[in-house]
Amino acid sequence: MDALSPLLSKGASKKEANYFNFDDDFESKLMSDEYQDVSAKEFRSSSIAHQMKDSVFTVQEDESGIKIGAPIYQPELEKIDISNPETVKFTTTPEKAPEEPIPEILEKIESAIEPSDIIRDIFLGKHTWIGRFRELSKKRELLKLALETYDQNTIFSVLWHLKATLSNEVLINTLDEFPASKLHYYTLLQQKGLEEELITTTHACKDYGKSGLLKLKQARRLGDPYKQFLMMKDCENYFRKFGFIQLADFVLDECDLLDAQLSIHTFEKSTGMIQEGIGSVEIFSPVLKTPNFTTLYYLCLRHFHSNTGLSSPTNFQAKFDISNADFLCIALSARSQVKDWQSVDNLLKKYQTKTWFGKNNSFVLAPEKIIEIFHQKDPSPWVATGNELRDSLIVSLLNQIEDLEERYLWSFNFLCHPVVIDTLVKLKDKNRLENYVTYLPRTSKYLRQIGDKLAAKSIIWRDS
Amino acid sequence: MALSDFGSILVKRYQSELLSILSQFDAPMDLVLEKELSSFIDQISPIQFLKSHGVEKIFYLEPEMNVGSDKRVYLIRPIGSNINKICRHVNYDLDQNINRNYLIIFVPFKTILCEELIESYALLDFVELHEWHIELIPLDSDLLSLESSHSLKNYLINECSSMPRLVASTLYTLFQVNISNQFHLHLLGEQADKVFQVFNYLKSMPLANKPIVNRCYFTDVILVDRNIDLITPLLTQISYEGLLDDIFGVQHGSVNLTEKVTGKSKPTKLMLNSNDPTYSQVRGYHISFLFSFIKDQSKKLIYKYDKGRKQTSISEMKSFVSELKTLKPMEQSLVVHLCACEFLKDVRSTPINQKLLSLEHALLSREQLDEKALVKFFESLLSFQVSWKDILRLLCLYSLLNPAPTKERIKILNHIEKQFIRAHGCGHINTILNLQELGLLNPQDEYVHMCQMGIKKLGLIPKVHKTDSVDLSNPIDTSFVFGGAYKPLSCTIIENFLKQGNWKLGSELLASIKFRITTNLISKSKCLAPEKSGKMAHKQYLVFFLGGCSYSEVNAIRFLGNQLGIEIGIATTSILNRDSIFQSLDDYIV
């Protein structure tokens, strides 16, 4: 009633209301208690209001601009020159009230419904009709108000309406005008699954970083690694073109890696390590699309003794400038996984040579780290596997650990008796040495050794 | 009314709301539940409750579903993939000429995108849509949560989130139920300002007031934007409840302990709240104290059992039997907590976790670290394929806390980032960019400057910070939540306010990241004159964390309440642990 009362007070009498071709009982409905508190938007969405709309005229937009259409009940469409306002006249069903100023009243009703009403209704989850606002200025206002609610649902509703009714160029300009709306619009497109459109929009909005990353995402999803390589090259160029050097470098590294993986794939195919695909379906090497370190691990696992091209781990290391420490760590991990202790020994001899000073920090990889790798890959106790080389490697590495507590910890983890006993004696820890007896089998020769040490008067135990 | 009672009132309200929606269907009906919602729903409407109100069978939402009765209720979050599954079900039924009624209940509200999606499938004629407005749910007697963690990334990075609206409407409910005619609303940070704007928008609307019989009381609400303190959720928690969350992941106030932990044949669900007498006493403890506590409790229990066995008279026997009711659950609770503690201790004491923790504490101590050794350490973590979240977490802490010159830090960060991509793949580029945007991996960002300033001005890092030298059983400040190494920034700002009565220090600090702190007096009616302070029986605070908070922060706030003798309730949008931020920011490029 709030919205209608000014209308009625400004000369829109009850009599005039009849000209709207309302139901006969409209007036009584309007004045009844039921409608006393009706707001403008509720009125607009009511069935009465719909009838009212249908009976008058439509205002339409087309490419040439605005034209005023004929009423839905009016079969003839009059040609109107909108440049001359005087020629613009409104028609309604002639037998009712041909000369009454109906549109003026209707305009007032329309104007009584403000964008803020619509926004409030969307915010509250009520049914509403956002399409009533066709002017760009109103749409801007809708967007501004929606952004002020910080409600994603409300903002999405307005943006979706804008997307449906504005050309791309105008839409982008509008988004530019409200920077906060951009991120919402991107999220909207993302949630709608419109990826291509999202890439175009981010590019048009000059968010080149985002656009490039979306392209990269698309590229990495491609199943065919050859196509992926080409598309990633495009991405790299795109980043470089728009000044994202760090990102371009990342992608370049990734391209190089993929290139190397493709050559490993070709090598594996030529040596029959990968089966031929059926028909046009190609079976690819599992190394494809994995990170550098994983690729190196794979090579150490499957091509450790190869010297050919990039399938050789050392060639791969050189090509991708992988440090000796990283290489050793990965290679040891892979070779101990397959229990190739001879290769492990060779690797240690090659990389783990002490300098003249003989200090542990001159090792490529700290002995405790190597022991940790061994423990990760094969935690079986010392001498349990029956592999003498493994056992001797463990003893020698444990003895290289400088920190006695850490040495004890690792030797205890492997139950490497000689090192445990030796370390506890060095630590002068009688209690732990006495307790260690419980970990030894009854027939163990180390029981006697422990007994000897405990009885030795030359050792001054820490606790005593 | 205490916050705990208010929590149970809220649950009852949600239950009645759900029942009124379900009453549109005659029993029996099937309930199809989104899996992620199951423990959340269990908290509000347990299965027995649902079954007693017409729900016959409960299913998880799967892509295919060809069974069930002729009435089906879906309970889902407004996510496109859920709608796709439902539409598939409906279309299948239509193809098979199966006549079935469908009701979709969105938690907490439906979205236009979901409605449009259903419309695009031309199924709006067949399904009925409803909303179940769940706001805060009680996780404990003093802790309420919105449990909406899924939009954390949008909240932190994109600023495209419904969080302000959700919190504002919650705040509006609190406003309505507050007995006090007015309360002070303190806004800390940009997102808090947004919430206030939406709150005012809601307040200006002629909303239908729901009849509220039960009310709560608070005089001050402090809204804390997560963006002001991003260090705290990055740190390893040392309290029992914090560790439970870091290692097992607490979900809606409960944790699932696997067979490996309990040694039982099936997983055990452990509810983590004050109703569990053991948990309520030990939750804030450092894990090292737990074993002695459990030992003491076990001794007491054995003594009581022994005493019971020695009873001879019938009356004594009777009293013992009635006491058994409490002893048995107590015994079970002790056993489960002991198992959990043992497991947590084992995980914590692995060499790699020890190393990560020692580096974290070294970074917190802000000693000038040997940069070469640090780089080597990070490289070894990478070659050992340590979890990417742990590496990025430590890298962020290095960027935020290290006092080394900015240029040097940038150089090191660039090098490790490059190595990180090599080890974990190009797919993590987006994650790194997100962290840079947030200021966590960018030493030039003003946020880093604010953190360094906060450390100096608020004394966030106590001078004596070694765990050994801090009496964790009898703490003197909030740093006890991190073993004496760090005071949570957000809690320290609040502590300062509670002690000084003004936000001066906090305002100065937040001004450096262009945030502000404002206080607004919210009155129910404009005509009402401001209440005199003398009229208020006592001060009751509610600290509301926007964007989530960790159990360590909850613990710190509880400690402040006890120390200052003030009642402080805690509300949050979700509970965070050290992995939460990384999980939400991880935008892995497939």
From TrEMBL, chain A:
Superkingdom of origin organism: Eukaryota
Cleaved signal peptide residues: none
GO annotations of cellular component type: early endosome; late endosome
Biological-process GO terms, alphabetical: intracellular protein transport; vacuolar transport
Localisation per UniProt entry: Cytoplasmic vesicle; Early endosome; Late endosome
Keyword annotations of the record: Cytoplasmic vesicle, Endosome
Protein name: Spermatogenesis-defective protein 39-like
UniProtKB/TrEMBL annotation, chain B:
Gene Ontology BP, a term: vesicle-mediated transport
InterPro entries the UniProt entry points to: Sec-1-like_dom1 (IPR043154), Sec-1-like_dom3a (IPR043127), Sec1-like (IPR001619), Sec1-like_dom2 (IPR027482), Sec1-like_sf (IPR036045), VPS33_dom3b (IPR043155)
Coiled-coil annotated spans: none
Cited Gene3D superfamilies: 1.25.40.850, 3.40.50.1910, 3.40.50.2060, Syntaxin Binding Protein 1, Chain A, domain 2
Family: Belongs to the STXBP/unc-18/SEC1 family.
Annotated protein name in UniProt: Vacuolar protein sorting-associated protein 33B-like isoform X1
